[in-house]
Amino acid sequence: MTEPVPRTGVRKAVGVDAARPSIARVCNRMLGGKDNYPPDVEVVLELEKSAPGQCAAAWASREFQQRVLRYLAGTVGVRQFLDLGAGLPVPEARRVDTHQIVGLSQVIPAADRPTVVYIDNDPVCVAHGRALLATDDRTHYLPGDLTDPNLLHEPGVRTYLDPEEPIAVLLCGVLHHLEDDQDPAGIVRGWAQVLPPGSFLVLTHLHDPGPGDDLHPYALSCRLRYLETLGSGWFRTRAQIAGLFDGLRLVTPGLVEPGEWWPGGPPLRGRSVAERLLLAGVGRTPGARWWDGR
């Protein structure tokens, strides 16, 4: 199956324009949020036609992120988190945003709660984030461009993060919105180079297993819907996604579907098509101060 791939270019953040779908609002819709509009709902419906199980995939990605956060904050002892392309908060009752997960870890004393800095280039996300997420002196939401690793050294970020201590950088659900010309692998490599020893990079990415696989037609169709409606959404091969971790050491179990990364038990149901079109992994920068024993 082949479909034409529209040449869309890179779209700027939609902001307050409710007549156009927004990546952040589409994700918010998939996670059960209310900060979305009819164009965003329509995108979710179109994606669902192409690859069923979009909301389940969004939650699988978020649940992977939660498990990683508990592991890094609790087991490893990371005390600084930088969430890039953070988007819109999900319903408060779910308590699944980064600062909530690391702050609720039972093994962390209240006085030693990690610092979390959220970053997004969409002014609406920043405004919502500051109102709903930046609730104390350990949680902050700032405007910024995730494609520029020098962001780590900007005064606003340096105010809250110590560049001499390990930092966990989250790039979840964002790199597949960068086209090849933007060199996503180079961007990840740039972040790895500016981070202190013992830091981590966490990412999820849309996956196309390639011709001959039963999922390939779904990936092609879903990619087309993404590009037509949002202007971005590139499905990459396992080799391309693995290449994002070049120079990093993959934490066990490596590059897997989100639900396979240290699940809490056996699966209670089969994974949807959309869930199977995602890969996730955690990479560690060289010179770490710890050993995970795996």
Which short descriptors sum up this protein?
294 residues; alpha/beta; Rossmann fold; seven-stranded mixed beta sheet; disordered N terminus; disordered C terminus
Description:
- The protein has about 290 residues and is an alpha/beta fold.
- It has one domain (about 25-285): 3-Layer(aba) Sandwich (Rossmann fold), CATH 3.40.50.
- Helices cover about 35% and strands about 15% of the residues.
- It contains nine helices and seven strands.
- It has helices spanning about 25-30, 40-50, 55-75, 100-105, 125-130, 155-160, 185-195, 215-230, 240-245, and strands spanning about 80-85, 115-120, 140-145, 170, 200-205, 250, 280-285.
- It has a seven-stranded mixed sheet, sandwiched between helices.
- Helix 5 (about 125-130) links the parallel strand 2 and strand 3 (about 140-145).
- The protein is globular.
- About 45% of the residues are buried.
- Residues about 1-10 and about 290-294 have low confidence and may be disordered.
Strand-helix topology:
Layout: H1 23-30, H2 38-50, H3 54-76, E1 80-84, H4 98-104, E2 115-120, H5 123-132, E3 139-143, H6 155-158, E4 168-172, H7 184-194, E5 200-206, H8 216-230, H9 238-243, E6 249-250, E7 278-284
Helix pairs in contact: 1-2, 2-8
